[in-house]
Write a structure and sequence with these properties.
The relative contact order is 0.15. 55% of the residues lie in helices and 11% in strands. The protein is globular. By secondary structure, it is of the alpha+beta class. A five-stranded mixed β-sheet has the order 3-4-2-1-5. It folds into two domains: 120 residues, Beta Polymerase, domain 2 (2-Layer Sandwich), CATH 3.30.460; 90 residues. It starts with a helix and ends with a helix.
Amino acid sequence: MRPEDLVRDHTVYACVAGSRAFGLATDGSDTDRRGVFLAPAPLYWRFEKPPTHVEGPAEEQFSWELERFCELALRANPNILECLHSPLVERIDDTGRELLSLRGAFLSRRAHETFVRYAWGQRRKLEADVRQYGAPRWKHAMHLLRLLMSCRDLLRTGTLTVDVGEQREPLLAVKRGEVPWSRCETWMSRLAAEADEAAGRSPLPAEPDHARVEDFLFRTRRASVR
């Protein structure tokens, strides 16, 4: 079975991610589509296993096989968790609905480490741009701030909210280069400190619910044998 056929025929969940899901889209924004497909179990009985992910077939489209998606979500991968909480769902079946019902099982205080670690990696790249070119890539600076906000609020509330809401205009001002880099640095540092503080008293559990997710994956894979 071709990879594109897995996406076409076996997608259980598909959404719009990126700027449009974040509420940060402008006239020139791309439409990033993300999805989850369930490879039928018999495909694993061959020497050549199904792919863990598929890029395409449409532009700006990327999909993960369900097991890989769950593995990454349990590790609190920021991109995966945001996909799982996108407000813009384009395609879903019963398996996809059960996956969404498990969103809370994936959330844990691990998000503090993964979100902030990713954010600091991006910040070092921005700082390198400033040293080399005199200015950062402002779009990347905007998304770094958004990520830190998301992390802080997740740790504070136990809920992951993807849309930036009233922070849209302040963040778009960063994207337009209207906010000095020094102010962005101060903002980033403050958000990271607030996330650190929130982690110590977060309502989130220390670890995700592996058993609940594994039970879902087992039942779903077994049903796909038919």
